[in-house]
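// run 5 | inverse folding | seed 20
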């Protein structure tokens, strides 16, 4: 299902002339949340989000890929953007970020600090003068912090 969802979201957003920044899919037993982040050089308007939402909703209804009732949200990544790919992490080396993990690392799941290094498998974050190496496969969400 994940591959099909990836394909549908990417082709729909790009077909409308937008860049897909990323998306979050949060399934629950009786409902789901699909949050899509789009970009374009000139910036994103409310009408852009509405256009993608209408088209994406129609595609999802036809494809019937989400087996439960769902909420669809479309927005720009904003300045406190969520990071999804290695390329995005590399773009923001040196920036402050908050990383939340699905499992604990040294008895903690939340890390707030400076993004220091990125490889294909992990990101390093400097928190209170201590480097933490966090594998991508356990990251639940990374969000930039703008001061």
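// decoded
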């Amino acid at each position: 299902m994940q591959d099909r969802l990836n394909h549908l979201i990417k082709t729909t957003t790009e077909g409308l002339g937008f860049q897909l920044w990323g998306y979050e899919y949060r399934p629950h037993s009786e409902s789901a949340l699909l949050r899509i982040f789009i970009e374009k050089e000139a910036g994103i308007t409310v009408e852009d989000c509405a256009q993608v939402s209408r088209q994406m909703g129609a595609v999802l209804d036809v494809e019937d890929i989400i087996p439960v009732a769902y909420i669809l949200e479309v927005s720009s990544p904003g300045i406190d953007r969520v990071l999804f790919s290695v390329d995005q992490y590399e773009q923001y080396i040196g920036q402050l970020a908050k990383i939340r993990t699905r499992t604990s690392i040294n008895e903690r799941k939340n890390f707030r600090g400076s993004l220091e290094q990125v490889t294909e498998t992990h990101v390093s974050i400097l928190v209170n003068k201590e480097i933490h190496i966090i594998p991508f496969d356990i990251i639940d969400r990374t969000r930039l912090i703008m001061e």
